[in-house]
Amino acid sequence: MNKNLTGLVAALIVWLPLHAQKVYEIDVPSQPKVVKEGHLRLGGKSPDGGSIDFTSFYMRENGLPTIPVMGEMHYSRYPREQWEEEILKIKAGGVTVIPTYVFWCLHEPYEGEFHWEKNLDLRHFVELCGRHGMKVIVRIGPFCHGEIRNGGLPDWLLSKPLDIRSNDSEYLSYVRRLYQQTADQLKGLYYQDGGPIIGCQIENEHQHSAGYMAITYPEEKKDMTSASYDKDITKIGVSVQDRRIENRRLGDEHMMTLKRMAEEAGIITPFYTATGWGMGAVLGNEGIPVTAAYTYPFWEKPRMSQFCMFKDLQKNPDYGNVRYNLDDFPSFCAEMGVGIQMIYPSRPIVTAQAAQALMVRTLGSGSNGIGYYMYHGGSTPKRTDGIGYYSEEPMGCPKISYDFQAPLGEFGLEHGSYRYLRLIHHFVNDFGDLLAPMEVLLPASAAAMTPSNCDTLRYSAREKDGSGFVFMINFQDHDLMRHDMDGLQLRLNLRGETLTIPAEGGFSLPKDESMILPFNLRMGGSLLKYSTAQLLLKIDDAGTEHYFFFAPDGVQPEYCFDMQTVQRLSISGGKRKGSIVRVQAGLGSTFEVLSSTGNRLKITTLTMEQALNTTKIGNRLVITPATVVEDGADGFRLLSLGSPSFDYVLYPSAQGMKVRHAEVAPVEASAETRRVGTRWMGMRMNLPESAQVAEYFLQIDYTADVVHCFLNNELIHDEFYHGAPWRIGLKRYADQLRTSEMSFYFRPLRKDAPFLEYYPSAETLDFSHGSILDINTVTILPLYQLQCRF
């Protein structure tokens, strides 16, 4: 074939649509959204002139709209010596605010005897957050829940004839003492003092939910940690309130009483929050009612949730009805279930794509605050009397493990959701000032969408002044029938123009993927009409704005510019057709745009894998499969589990986008095991000291029902089987392991185990011998570390 003809055919293949098009439309209303100001008694100032305040639609920091990214970690569930490392991992994940519970039962285990030392050193934890630029929200109770004994209420309190979680005068006297103790620990650390504490949550799920009383009996209907007048309306877990609340006034009065007591104690923050879902009691115009969504709740039977379908969350919050005026408050998430705790009979598994879909849906539905419960897992401490556990045993929780399948797990290792969520966090942190004021636009078909519909695109848009973002998901929890969606085209009927994405042909949204696409985005003086790649972040590249996008596998990146705003497009690794540029995603995809006003900008399109591996530190990117942790002002550390080899890109740098390779000296760690009967295993470990190893992890690949881990005659960890190897961080036990044996007790998995009804791989288990107890491999994995400098 003629070479010219061959080239023509190839060009046609690139540009012609390969699938029948499916056009999805959104109309912009004739009048923009009305945003109210000055009606909320919220806000505060810092000594350096900073400010925080709220409109009816979004939060402002220093006068600019902002979307905080809040990731919960419980200091009391993690070793004090490792707090700083974990705070840095949370920061590297793009989180900007750390909420944390103050569990009353841990701090005052005996009446009048308070403890704020060791792993309970709240002040030190908050100071570390502030040292690394992380803001804090303290959730001060008195009732917390958090799958902890009595929901955090001390046993001694429940021995007294008083009415908990009410305005009972004796109950309030004990709460006042707790609040004063908490306030004294935090003195000087509030935003008004120049400290990191910007918010405070009062109570938790008041007049909605409670925990079980710790003292309970088999076959008994379990008693609840609620006020006596709320017993009949109290739920377990997060859900819609389907009962009439006869004593709403008492609940509202109690919440306001607690807030006044906190302020009188000295807990003064720019804003206060209350859990507002399911008709929970709130704080009037003196607090933000926060929301939740759990796609895999352990307290309900598995079913397709409503949380993968777009709606206007401000007008129609999840788990509604609510008892506040919807138009007065922004939609603020506090408990987004990107993980979930396992209990013995119910062990839901949350995937990374499920977490991503939930949050893309939530942002696309108008939420202007992202909050995760949990973002970092931990281990529930044992009772100080050495008898029993602080976990919520009547619920069937593990005695100690609180991994929660959180983005960062019980021992600080990444779960898959960590990187998928970081894609969203980078975007929100760099472009939240644009996104926050944008109103929600829904297609006419949104109200009729059902969870089981896997053939119609799920999408929304947020828009202001003709600019905005389209949100799309091709995922549904508890649904195995989804498929790639091809030949998609969007038609945005804006005020003054109709914008079609893409201009010609269609694009694809692969199965289980979620995307956020920009339209009419101002970039360095140029106007990007649209892209079919997702916006990730931007940096200052030697005085030039450098935007990074990414494209999931199977998606062709395409950029369309308003050529009246562009003087020149400099493309080396892509193709251009008029105003449209197509590139192949990768480190070499960068092209430059010179605007009509003389401003230069760069655009790089990363692959999905590269985007998932991207961490932003200040104005630099580190692209690596390793975990990234800041190391002072001039460098960072890379952490690699099991491999002493490191590959990474540091940009900007003298080496540009070049992939660097480094290795550290490998170590030989080992475990010597001995089996006793069929259920016991003893283990001694050889863990060489090495500056190149941050920590050792024990990995056990097994099949059983429950495993208990003992050290020096104490249960230190437990695990419910869910199909994955068990990894235990050993740093906290380093001294004991030099001289002591660690032992494990395995309980066999039986065919009638209740969780198997919902376990996705149950059909692969072989019960031909009646039960299963297999210990396949035991491995010691070094967590290697490499120090790098900018």
Structural class: alpha+beta
N-to-C CA distance? 52 Å
Query: What is the general shape?
Result: globular
Whole-number radius of gyration?
27 Å
Main sheet characteristics: 8 strands, antiparallel
Which consecutive residue ranges, at least 5 long each, have pLDDT under 50?
1-18
> In DSSP terms, counting alpha (H) and pi (I) runs of 4 or more, how many helices?
10
User: Kindly state the mean pLDDT as a whole number?
Assistant: 96
Overall helicity: 10-25%
Order of strands across the widest beta sheet?
A: 16-17-18-22-23-26-29-28
Which secondary structure elements does this structure contain, and how are they paired or packed?
Blueprint: H1 3-15, E1 22-27, E2 44-45, E3 51-54, E4 59-61, E5 64-66, E6 69-71, H2 83-92, E7 97-101, H3 104-107, H4 122-131, E8 135-139, H5 169-185, E9 197-201, H6 248-265, E10 271-275, E11 288-294, E12 332-337, H7 352-364, E13 370-372, E14 378-379, E15 401-402, H8 417-435, E16 439-441, E17 458-464, E18 467-473, E19 485-494, E20 497-501, E21 507-509, E22 514-523, E23 526-531, E24 534-541, E25 544-551, E26 558-561, E27 566-570, E28 574-577, E29 580-583, E30 591-595, E31 600-607, H9 608-612, E32 614-617, E33 620-623, E34 627-630, E35 635-641, E36 645-651, E37 660-663, E38 670-676, E39 680-686, E40 693-703, E41 706-711, E42 714-720, E43 726-729, H10 734-737, E44 742-747, E45 749-750, E46 771-772, E47 774-789
Parallel strand pairs: 1-19, 6-13, 7-8, 8-9, 9-10, 10-11, 11-12, 25-31
Antiparallel strand pairs: 2-3, 3-4, 4-5, 14-15, 16-17, 17-18, 18-22, 19-20, 19-21, 22-23, 23-26, 24-25, 26-29, 27-30, 28-29, 30-31, 32-33, 33-36, 34-35, 35-47, 36-37, 38-39, 39-44, 40-43, 40-47, 41-42, 41-44, 45-46
